[in-house]
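In response to reviewer comment 3 from the previous cycle, which asked for concrete evidence that the modeling workflow produces usable outputs, we include below a single protein chain processed end to end. The sequence was submitted unchanged, and the resulting structure tokens are shown without manual editing.
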Amino acid sequence: MMCKKLAKNVALEKKGTRRIDCSVHSSFKDVEHLKEEWDTFVESVGGDIYFSYTWCLTWWEYYGKERELRIFLFRKNNVIVGLIPVFIEKQWLGPVWLKIAKIVGSDFTMVIINPPVAENLFKEIFSDIIDALFQKEKCDAFCIGPTSGKYSGLHQLLKAIKGNSNAKLIKNNIYSPYTFFLLPKKYEEYVQTLKNRQRSNLRRDLNLITRSFVMTNELIKDEKIAYFEFKNFIKMHNDQWKAQGKLGHFNDWPKGAQFNAELVRRLAQEGRLRLLRLLADGQVVSYELCYAFSKRWHWRLPARVVGPVWDKYALGRIGLIKEIEIAISEGVQEIEAGAGHYDYKIKLGGEECPLHTLFIARNQIFIRWRALLFLKLSNALHFLYYRVWFSRLAPKLPFKRRPLWQLWIRTRV
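The workflow returned the following structure tokens.
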């Protein structure tokens, strides 16, 4: 099959009765009438909230400027079997440029990119997208990731690349793991899965804080309450990271506060927001920002009060335990807990999985060499700007720090 642009359908016949139609749309307005069908499909294949219609639309409104949108929509027997929104842009690094395609949402935010595709159709769909991007759109490269190592389509995606004469896999990089919690049906069962030492530490932490305060917790879902609480959440999160000499998520990422506030508003309207707040004697001492999608919670960010009075109470661990307890009560089967290695998450039952980023170039010798040079310059920028300047030197200097460079964000592959 070969996709045609701007919602013009084409069919692929296989084995007599198998029919897959592909349409490509260049704006979210073209597919807004499919919102419910879109989300139903993503949930049906175990997809993440990062591929929900609202998440993708919101991301595009904040970070899609000067980028071209291509929403690949695949149907079999008039039922959606694949849905992959892609954007295309021309990127320069010094004297080198590439026309690159990426998955919507894969930069400016820290998410996991597991494209929602029906089982047994991964190879055909990925092959078609690669052909469309390299042959029709004349892209030089296609970047996919960060993708979970347990994503069921990863192996088929690699097969599709290997079997496509137009594509060459330049890099399959593993930057860091991400953490997830597989949850039992009862909270008591979860506690029993912890090691003896961790169960003892958990009892100690809970006893210590409950002897000092009357502890309560609330789960905020309502849009009006969430709007007010999210402002407090941002302040608490920023204060927590400021105490460590860092900017925090909302100041690190351009438009971070505005983008996330809009997500909170829209996803609260859809009943997907889960903002947990923990109170001690009526004072809010921690938050956990999560979103519910199917039987999975996506834990986005925590926040807690800091200072000599509070640091001894292990508010981070207690907040996570309460989050797990409430998630189990809602019948949640898994919590996706974000990228990076955190000891306390592992000690409390989290499991780690690698994150892959695939960088595919059009299989022409000049383009491959240009892509390799682009990657070398990208790595040099990452080392000099992010690791040396942003992470080490800038925090020590006496001036107001700025968000991450957009050049670094856009060219980090």
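Residues 5-18 have pLDDT under 50 and may be disordered. We consider this sufficient to address the reviewer's concern, and the full set will be provided in the supplementary archive.
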